[in-house]
Amino acid sequence: MRKFAFIIHPLRFDDFARKFPVTQYLPEKLVEWAFKQVGPLKIGHVTGVRSKSGEELEGWLLGLPLTPEILLNAPYEWVLKKLERAGRLAEELGAEILGLGAFTKIAGDRGITLSQRLSIPVTTGNSYTTATAVEGALKAAERMQIDVRSSGATVIGATGAIGRAATLLLAEQVRHLTLVARTPEHLEALEAEIRAQCPDVDVRWTTNIPEAVRPADIVVAVSSATGVIVEPEDLKPGAVVTDVARPRNLSRAVMEKRRDVLVLDGGVIQVPGAEADMGFDFGFPPKMVEACMAETMILALEGRLECFTLGPSIDVARVREIRGLAEAHGFSMAGFRRFERAIDDGEIERIRMEARSASA
Prior knowledge:
Blueprint (H helix, E strand, L loop, with lengths): L1 E7 L7 H4 L8 H9 L4 E10 L5 E8 L4 H6 L2 H18 L4 E3 L11 H6 L4 E2 L2 H18 L8 E5 L4 H11 L4 E5 L3 H14 L4 E5 L2 H5 L4 E4 L18 E4 L9 H5 L4 E4 L2 E3 L17 E3 H12 L13 H14 L2 E2 L2 E3 L2 E3 L1 H15 L1
Parallel strand pairs: 1-3, 1-4, 4-5, 6-7, 6-9, 7-8, 9-10, 10-11
Antiparallel strand pairs: 2-3, 12-13, 12-14, 15-16
Helix pairs in contact: 6-7, 6-11, 6-12, 11-12
């Protein structure tokens, strides 16, 4: 049996109450201060996962009770010590590989130094997250009867690890491509890279999110912003939006007010095994996890005990490779979902008809 561990943390203050209900009655600052004193916690036991090859998998979810703001703003050496303690716990439990969830893979040098301090390999899971984000966006666009080859796509957070790789993959599929990020110099460099690799695509960049989003048929949101950056009025009727970011880049009001826009959760994966139990309530139905966690599980099952995805960039060849490994072991996209709720063909058709009416 192969074994893995995966680090998770609360994305919002409300998440503390999911594990520790008493915290909902206490001042936010007091709760954050108290949990900063706490080390990693073993909060979930993954069992029953079985590959199509017959290989079985066991895993542990290790919780760091730190919000995104703490992980990003605290001195990295302090954060690194917290991550290292979680890694040591993973080693003690017998894990063969460690995955980093949410903002633990963004802090500092994105897992590189941590991997050097542990005896087991570390992965951010960003390769499989990228693969499923792009795959989901393109499949949804086809369902909305968007001609992908002539469409316009916008990537928010284009110069980040996932954003860059997603941008390079989309550049092979669409006609127009808009890059959005905070730093013009990084955007200029990425634009030049895309022009060199895909000379037929019309590519531009901007730091203005509404300006980039309004004409887009396809939007992939992967910004590491800790708050909402896309509002209902920003989107084109009939647009497909895949929100990979956690916390979300999209306001929930988009789903409530824009019935003519198809919003998707990025990177929700169904794992193989009839008895699979994730050991924790992620807000998904049973047997479903984020793609970053799925990457860790896939590598463990494959026996690829290596630092598969680390650092500030992602090799597109590895994105393609992990997608192939996922299929071989029986991992798959969990249909289409938005805000943790499954959507069926009828709902997609209703959104498409609403978009047609809004555009008329």
